[in-house]
Design a protein that fits this description.
The chain has eleven helices and six strands. It is α/β, with parallel strands linked by helices. Strands 3-2-1-4-5-6 form a six-stranded mixed β-sheet. A hairpin with a 2-residue loop joins strand 1 and strand 2. Helix content is 45%, strand content 10%. The two termini are 24 Å apart.
Length: 315
């Protein structure tokens, strides 16, 4: 349900460690100008050819383009997550206390758990959040796939309520109100999407990493962009990668710019341009409230309005 964040957290370290291995035990690569040949004419010359130069100003434009992806990536979500019927504003996914559900699967942060272990996993997640400096991370957020059966949702609601934790938030989806960034090369992104279509999340991450590695020009400036962020904290990787890729492309004379930026776009935005973004709405679970109707979470959400979230219950 979180393919974008999965890709960002798996692909970048994987490529970074691969880059370190290939560049001599982690030795910092020379990121000065590298001669990798002239970029081929047409699409692969990218914006540098259209603008008439691959210079610092062009590198800054690339960095700003990528930072735009970073900003939106915290809100990108798949269409598994139901639309909020009342159309609230989009908001970033919570960085802690996130409970993800899909049929037969329950996850807190990055760890699978059973319903009986949910409260304990939440407590561990809060402790990790405090260690990261997120002192206000005390409440949970539920992001549930629309086809999750009612009984599974009810079991989680009951567990949270019985633990004395009725207040939290729901992560739902909304359609973007503004145009979303598009890939440099839509055909290349579509080809990647086809390759990833039947893979599970971990396989998608590895396949994406291999695609980027295969396309990467043999220039230390670009390989260093990945190795430099491999061990940084997840919340810093996207911005640091934007800086590293932009500087690396310029130092390498902007080879294969459109292809490389399209593949990196897939790490931040997914293998298709996003059609839904997350919204986060407060909710209070109330066992005394009349249970909402619906056989699946998607059907339950379709019957909600904003007022229903003050006393929500599913049995």
């Amino acid at each position: 349900m979180l393919p974008v964040r999965t890709l960002a957290l798996v692909v970048v370290p994987w490529l970074g460690l691969a880059s370190l291995a290939c560049s001599g035990e982690g030795k910092v690569a020379d990121t000065g100008p590298q001669d990798v040949g002239q970029p081929s004419p047409g699409k692969e010359a990218g914006a540098a050819g259209a603008a008439g130069g691959c210079d610092a100003a062009h590198g800054n434009a690339i960095e700003q383009e990528m930072l735009g992806w970073c900003e939106l990536s915290e809100r990108v979500v798949s269409d598994e997550v139901p639309l909020a019927p009342w159309k609230p504003a989009s908001a970033n996914k919570p960085s802690s206390g996130l409970i993800e559900m899909r049929p037969g699967s329950l996850q807190v942060g990055w760890r699978e758990t059973a319903v009986g272990g949910l409260v304990g996993q939440l407590e561990e997640d809060r402790e990790f959040a405090k260690m990261r400096g997120e002192l206000g991370a005390t409440r949970w957020s539920l992001m549930i796939g629309g086809d999750t059966p009612r009984a599974e949702v009810a079991a989680v609601f009951r567990t949270l309520a019985d633990a004395g934790q009725p207040k939290g938030s729901l992560v739902l989806s909304v359609e973007p109100s503004d145009p979303v960034p598009q890939p440099r090369d839509p055909e290349r992104l579509a080809a990647l999407h086809t390759k990833l279509a039947d893979a599970d999340p971990s396989e998608r991450a590895m396949l994406t990493a291999r695609e980027i590695q295969a396309a990467m020009p043999p220039c230390p400036g670009l390989t260093h962009a990945f190795s430099a962020v491999a061990t940084t904290s997840p919340d810093q990787r996207c911005a640091l990668l934007a800086r590293g890729i932009s500087e690396g492309l310029v130092s390498c004379r902007c080879p294969k710019e459109d292809e490389m930026l399209t593949l990196v776009y897939s790490i931040s935005m997914g293998s298709t341009p996003p059609e839904r973004l997350t919204t986060v709405v407060p909710v209070v679970l109330d066992p005394a409230a009349a249970p909402r109707s619906g056989a699946t979470w998607g059907e339950i959400v379709a019957g909600l309005d904003q007022g229903a979230l003050q006393t929500l219950w599913v049995d």
